[in-house]
Specification:
Blueprint: E1 8-9, E2 15-16, H1 18-30, H2 33-39, H3 44-58, E3 63-66, E4 74-77, H4 79-112, H5 119-127
Antiparallel strand pairs: 1-2, 3-4
Amino acid sequence: MARLTVRIDFDGSESFGPGKARLLELIDAHGSIRSAAAAMNMSYRHAWLLVQAVEDTFGAPVISTATGGAKGGGAKLTEFGRNLVTRFRMIESQAAKATNTELSELSRATSTGMPGERSGKRRERAQR
């Protein structure tokens, strides 16, 4: 089955996509950057750099952190961070709905070929 992946590119080289959104969701769910990073099989440093990149892109904090103490510190999404993830997931959902028919056709074409194409030509191209 074909699926659509959305990545939003901003001026310069900044972008926000499903990986950064998932990292923020996991930080919120786990209450920890380290735990979220482990859940995504990435280093703490890489996760921290991704969070910093998101904050640099938007010029606003997306997480708030607490150090040590009786509860051991942790991290959670700010209101802006939660709003960012919500808006991104809404964009993904709307894009998926808008392209559902075309994606279904492309999925079918992976096994049957595009309408009007002879299967022999398809096999010939695949062998090149």
